[in-house]
Structure formats: structure tokens, C-alpha cells
Design brief:
This protein is an alpha+beta fold. Helix content is 42%, strand content 16%. The protein is built from 12 helices and 10 strands. The chain has a 7-stranded antiparallel beta sheet, with helices on both faces. GO terms for molecular function: DNA-binding transcription factor activity; sequence-specific DNA binding. InterPro entries: AraC_XylS_family_regulators, Homeodomain-like_sf, HTH_AraC. This is AraC family transcriptional regulator.
Length: 286
């Protein structure tokens, strides 16, 4: 999913329970511009195995209890798992999970991570491949930390160190990305090039080279992510399909099956996805 802690950090909100899970979000004083983060702890000792789905942010998961999370088909991760918005098919397994997950907004990635979003759209990487030894040191301190407040403070300090990158996202591309996200993937993509005085070919090329996917694919991922979050609530599959803008329930079914390997009904009935929806709703309310 470093410098010593400052003594004046604010206390994070009390963790909230969801079944056997505990979720926590940072207090306002720990918020990092361009980053949303959540802590997850499974007190039931349960196990899970899931495919890493695409999403509208770069995902970083740092295991705070050695061995609670591991990628299937690969070795251990020293710093944390990093996945772009459209990762190659990969699966994760977990047992008694205790981790922090971060979502990094794409325009903020070069300054915070030192890489472009497009560089991360392959197989998930180890954070140590991007941050070097700093990633391993951060994880070691997170394992030692006694509270969510301590963990969030450590992560905030780690991200306070600027990362050098010559890569920059064009203001036009960043604006288009924000419009796609704000419109929940339902923005008329064909209208965007004219807004910036660009040809369709130039817009398509610049967007894909900098974000890592085409504008159409980006809109699909944003819409899918919203549907996935809604499936973890009390809304029915038919209600989610209509609300998010799918042509019909079967369209939603095909897309969820394609990206997760599971049906919408299976997602909706899985407590793990309910916890996920609860956690990110809590984080974005800060």
C-alpha cells in the first residue's frame, strides 16, 4: 500500500472500524498536496488475493508489518509497491494486513516521485527502484512507528524532500486530466483539443506520452474507479451502472470483469471492497 518526527504534529482522527478492519486517515496537519493517504489494519487475521485494478492516481502501498502483503509471481518489495494508473495484470495477496496506501495525483508525480506517470504503467515497481535507499529507510521507520499519527507524520516528511525530475506535464495536459477527473470520466473528449488550440493528433500524442494512456482510456479508468467505489456501498449493481453512466448493467459487468477478474456482484458482496470505499471516503473528507 528520514528526519526525526516533529513534536508539533497534529493527532490523526481516531481510526474507524469496518468489520474486522481498522481504517485511518491523516489529520489536516499531515495532508500532502497532491497525495491522499489511508491506513489499513486487519484485526481479524483474514486473507485475501486480489488483482491490482487500474485507477486515476499512482498507487503506493507500504507494508508496515513485514509479510502482511506480497505480490504474487514476484519477489519481496523493500520499500513499497508502486502501480501506475493502468498497470499490467498483477495480483496481491495479504494476511492480517497492516499498511499505508497513498494515491498520488498524476500532475504532482514528477515533483513528488521524480518520475513521469507514463513510466509507471508497466508491471508494479518497488518504491526502492524510484527512491533508492530512502524507500527502505521510510518503511523501516513505519514498521517501528507506534501509531497512525506517527506513520502519517513520517510519510509527510518523506514527501517534503523534493525529487529532481526534468519531466514536466504540459499545463494543457494537466488541465485536460483535471477536467476528466472532475467530470467523472464523462467529459466529451472530442471537445478538449479545441479548448487548447491543439489538433486532435497533437493532443492525443502529448496526453498519452505524459499521462501514459490516451484521453479515452483515461476517462474509462476514471469512470471505472468511481463505479468500483460505489459497488462497495449499499447501491445495487443496476443503480451503480445508471449513476456512473454505463450503457446498461451488462456494460458495467464486462468492464468490472475485465479490470478485476470478478463480477460486480462479487465485488459488491466482498467486505474488502466495502472497507476500501469507507477508507477513501474518510480520507477525502479531511
Amino acid at each position: 500500500m528520514l528526519p526525526s518526527m516533529r513534536a508539533d504534529t497534529e493527532t490523526a482522527p481516531a481510526p474507524q472500524g469496518q468489520g474486522g478492519w481498522e481504517v485511518a486517515a491523516p489529520a489536516e496537519g499531515h495532508v500532502i498536496p497532491g497525495v491522499t493517504m489511508v491506513g489499513f489494519r486487519d484485526r481479524s487475521g483474514g486473507v485475501f488475493e486480489e488483482r491490482i485494478p487500474p485507477g486515476p492516481a499512482i498507487a503506493i502501498v507500504i507494508d508496515c508489518a513485514p509479510g502482511s502483503l506480497e505480490p504474487l509471481g514476484g519477489g519481496a518489495f523493500e520499500g513499497g509497491i508502486v502501480a501506475g494508473i493502468s498497470p499490467q495484470a498483477a495480483r496481491m495477496a495479504g494476511r492480517a494486513v497492516d499498511c499505508v496506501e497513498l494515491q498520488v495525483d498524476l500532475p504532482a508525480a514528477p515533483g513528488l516521485l521524480g518520475v513521469s506517470p507514463a513510466e509507471l504503467n508497466g508491471a508494479p515497481l518497488d518504491l526502492a527502484e524510484i527512491w533508492g535507499r530512502d524507500a527502505g529507510r521510510l518503511r523501516a521507520r513505519l514498521i517501528e512507528a507506534r501509531s497512525w499519527d506517527d506513520r502519517f507524520a513520517l510519510i509527510r516528511e518523506a514527501f517534503a524532500c523534493p525529487r529532481r525530475s526534468s519531466f514536466r506535464i504540459d499545463p494543457e495536459v494537466a488541465d485536460a486530466w483535471r477536467r476528466i477527473r472532475a467530470g467523472h470520466g464523462r467529459v466529451p473528449i472530442g471537445d478538449l483539443p479545441g479548448r487548447y488550440g491543439w489538433s486532435r493528433t497533437r493532443f492525443w500524442s502529448r496526453f498519452k506520452s505524459q499521462i501514459g494512456v490516451t484521453p479515452k482510456r483515461a476517462a474509462m479508468i476514471v469512470r471505472f474507479d468511481r463505479a468500483l467505489r460505489r459497488l462497495g456501498t449499499t447501491a445495487s449493481v443496476a443503480e451503480v451502472a445508471a449513476e456512473i453512466g454505463y450503457a446498461d448493467q451488462s456494460h458495467l459487468h464486462r468492464e468490472v470483469l475485465r479490470f478485476t477478474g470478478r463480477t460486480p456482484g462479487a465485488i459488491a458482496s466482498d467486505p474488502l471492497w466495502t472497507v476500501d470505499s469507507t477508507a477513501w471516503t474518510l480520507a477525502r473528507a479531511v
